[in-house]
Task: structure prediction
Amino acid sequence: MRAHPVPVRRPDRHPRHRVAVAAAAAVVAAAALLAGPVAPAAAGPATAAAVPAWSLHGWSAQRWLADPSAATLTTSTLDGGGLTVERRILGLPLPGPFPVLHVSAELGFDGGSADGTTFQQLDNHVATWSLLAGARARLPVVSWLHVTARASVGGGRTSVRIADQGMTTAISDRAVTQVASTGLGLSLLPVLKRGSRFRVGFEVELGYQVTTATSVHAYPEDRGPAELTIPASYASLGDVDLDGWNLRIGGTVGF
Amino acid sequence: MRTLVPILTIALAACAAERDPALDRPRLITGPIPLQAQVAYVDGALDRVVLVDVAEATPAVHTVGVGRDPIWASPTFKRDRLLVITRGEEALARGQVDEDPMLWNIDVANPDTPPVGYDIGSPFDRLAVSTDGKLAVAHFSEAGPDAQGFFRNPNELAFVDLTRPPGPDNPVLKTLRSFSSTPTAIVLSPPMTIPGAADATPRVFAFVLAQNRISVVDATYPTHDEVTIRLDQAGASVLPREVVFAPNTATAYVRSDGARDVLEVLIGNDPPPADQADANDFRPVLAELGAGGGPADVAVYDDVDGRRFILAATPGTREVVVIDADTAEFVRVATPDPVDRIVLFPADPDVPARKAVLASIGARLSRVQVLDLEGIDEDLIPRSVTTIEVGEPVMAIEPVPGRELAMLVHDDQRTVLGLLDVAYGSVSPLQGVGRLDDYAFTSSGKYLVAATPSLARLGYLDLDNLHPTDLRLDDVPARLFALPDGKLFVDHGDPLGRATIIPSPEASRDDSVVLSGFLLAGLLEE
Result:
């Protein structure tokens, strides 16, 4: 049998973390790379068609939450989507059958949410968004099929809301998080016009996203301003961790 | 690509975290249960006790795990321990484990100490605890069998020695001999020494009340045979309702519906045969004390000489009977009203009572009587009651701890109160703005604190001068407790957990603290 004290927090409502500084630095670095000169496309049979210098990606995503703390709130996947802008910055010649590896910098935004029920009584809502900067490697297997690998870091925010079905009471909390995301995907990029950079394609990516755990305290939603209410302490529910496997399906436009 | 996505989806779903089945159970919260410096809530889904500890300025929350499916919780008399009965379960689905019904003994002042679990064998749903906190008797209520199991024996009891660890002889399961009736209640005596017995150990006796019978079990030696007292020998059906004790003389007094008199049960010495290990060393000696009219309420007090008296109100004959417990001599005092409620003053059981306030709750009369108990057994002192007009029908009467004051509730809506000064015979009317659903007297006896669920406010009444004040709350109250350390605990009935802790009635809003979400404390770490 367990017995443990549960910390309570005094009124420092919605504290801000400073962990986003590193993520912001990464975003700034990626933005600088995006603004820099475009690398020339390396020549080779697989790149007979020109490789786009800029690409826009849009996708819908599902995340299968891997931590029991998330399963406490929801059994659903975290559903959402996002947008990324990518700029090719480097072409590396390779030995062997695949002559070139394209390296890009990218900057993106994604978000998602999930609903769940606990004790057949509590309605839970988990939402998160993040701003990510990173690098993507693109290996053209053939001119219309690319294998991609992606890694990005950033910062974001996670919010949790728990409401009782029978009453109007609800608690919510939110916190800044650090995010790291990886993915391995396939891009179908049919060549629309020989020699043109313009591409429209379809992408599938499987990845894993790691976020710092969010500490959740029971801040009532209906609580009035601090100066008009009795000083309060808020029980800690623990940390919710939204790590999990990501499946992204979407489209891309390159030019 | 068309087949790749479904395959990936299935594979990823297998990677998702597994959810604890406890999170999908319906959740029943038992409580709040006030303790010493804690207030307890029993969570029926997570199988845990949530303790809100208000000893410090900032409240602390502790959770203590117990067995599966808590069905009953009782504090000990001193409120320093919480006893929880868990139903257990059969492992029929994922996440379930086979577990027998258990009784958990939780040290609430030291929640880090693991609770002691006793295997009580049957899913009892009621608990009687001795006043010294050393013995507990688990028994069944009259609710009948639940949906689980096959047979249920309503005359089965589990005697638990809370001072010893669980073992083959602790608890002791015992089935009482029955005469077609089942227990309606169990009352445990304070520790009593049997006069003249070779074994001078103070014993706790369990009085098991049932239709037409009382069974007396030596709970200190539960393997010994019980003694059953038939109450229907005269032909009338009798239901014992109330038992009061005189521990110094090892005597119990029983008031019953359908009985004309108070039954005295004297626990006398009766040495057992040497060859019968389970035989009793006591024998109840019965006497009918002459109330004579079907007592509706009884009270017991000791006078300044230590003599024990029993007061029995018999509304049918409009009398109060004062019985000398040692001699069974009695004095009848006529009352103008059909008295059915007796309140002794001072209310402290350790102080000899000097007056009794007599009320006629059933008749809803707007007067009470005061009976002076000093010299009640002396022939030279006139025995009469003093009638006090209180202006409104009396619906309830409650003694104020430590004072010779009684609170009178006057109407069904509980909005009109009166404060009766027993010493002077005066009544001070009080008017409330809402229904007085919950009230408490502070441990010092200085304040009456009241709450009503329609108003986010606590009302205080200074009992020194009857000056009313109030404190605005942030939320409407649902329950109110005055804890022994002087703090006030207001539960707001929030299923997520919300309470206001007020250090004292003199404290301001800024001195108070609201604790939010404690019923979800640690939820994400379960």
About this structure: The mean pLDDT of chain B is 84.
